Amino acid sequence: MSTFEEKMKAMAGMSQEEMMKRIQGIKNVCKDYCGKCPSYEGTGETDLAFCATGKSNKITEEKGCICAGCPITKGMALRWEYYCTRGSGREQAGLK
Question: Where are the domains of the chain?
Answer without folding.
Answer: 4-8+16-93
